[in-house]
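For reproducibility, we list the full input for the shikimate-3-phosphate complex.
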Amino acid sequence: MATLSFQGPGKFCGVCTPPGDKSISHRAVLFGSLAEGESAYENFLEAEDCLHTLDAMRQMGVEIHHAKGTGKVRIFGKGLRKLSAPKKELYLGNSGTSMRLLLGISAGQRFETVLTGDPSLSSRPMRRVTEPLKKMGAQIKGRENGNFAPLTIRGGKLRGIDFDNKLSSAQVKSALLFAGMYAEGRTIVREAVPSRDHTERFLEATGARFQKVAHHLIIEPTEMLLPLRARIAGDISSAAFFITGAAMIPGSEVTIRDVGLNPTRTGILEVLKRMGAGIETEITQTVPEPMGNIRIRGAKLKGTGITRAEIPSLIDELPVLMVAMALAEGESLVSGAAELRVKETDRIKSMVGNLRALGASIEELPDGSLIRGVETLHGATVESFGDHRTAMSMGVASLATEGVITVRDTDCIATSYPAFMEHFQMLFNR
Ligand code: S3P
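The corresponding predicted structure, in tokenized form, follows.
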């Protein structure tokens, strides 16, 4: 089990190009596999989670060329209805996105698919996806009535449903939109608080029978999808570690290049601006996904509140935002974020426990946390709990630490950001 040590204090200075976006990379492989013809992508995220999606599609008979280390993938799509039954179970490691999105696709297939994962993934709730898919007509078996992997799913004759996405989960929404392409009649997904819209953008670009009317997403039976060619934008959720680290340390100055600036993902920038950080963005591309550069200048930050309406736009950035709040002047309150408890680990618990071990003043709430900023943190040994974002957030905390933060169990960083330490060392200055 790997361990990393971060010697603080320090700041971030320089330029960083983050790796390809994880959410978009998963979808690139899935849409490419379901399209008819050759799709080609650059800057595909070569991290464990996305490679599990890629392997799963290969096991369903899709030819995918991937030259390791190049970020280039070519996918020879088989069409929506020509996937083949996998010969063995599909192992998806730590990746919730792979499992939930593949449930939606498997629901449309006439063969049986078995989806499994590591202990963390096997303890994450799947009912949010399996229940509506069952309503559409899929047969799904798994522990606790289809709530936990391993899950066995047999699809076939589906019918459209009208679904209210109360959790504002992009994974749930995406699974139902995939299944909806195979269903009889229309499937409607309602979403009062919008979640990331990458799936919708792919549906539009590949010619699916899809429309968005106000807060309603409507998908109708779709015969075929078109292949695509695109460069995948950098991942703002990976850049978030350097954006936040730079924002919270006066004297830091960082430019993040070619990063995704999809407005359903940029909540972190709004929060950091509100806290007093100097943040400027420049958009260099708008289609298929907004992309550009971000310039960050560090400042002594002020506390702020984050409520439910903002949560989906920064859900994966909350662990590192909690680090910034632990060091901001005054009080910060995160609420409406109960979803954090069912991520790769319970991120409210992991972050509250770890920040407290470093001397932060932080209280755990059922749906978030209450934080009173302190001037500096102190060194300690903390756990990642097998969660990549908890591990990387602890590295960022070291910028304001007199001493060493040792993070145990850091192999998990490879699930989303294998180059994290390289980029950390490149930007780190005393
Ligand atoms: C993701 C959606 C989010 C996010 C996850 C990736 C996606 O999960 O936390 O890391 O790619 O759709 P939920 O949609 O379940 O909130």
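The chain has a mean pLDDT of 98. The first strand starts at residue 3 and ends at 8. Both points were considered when choosing residues for closer inspection.
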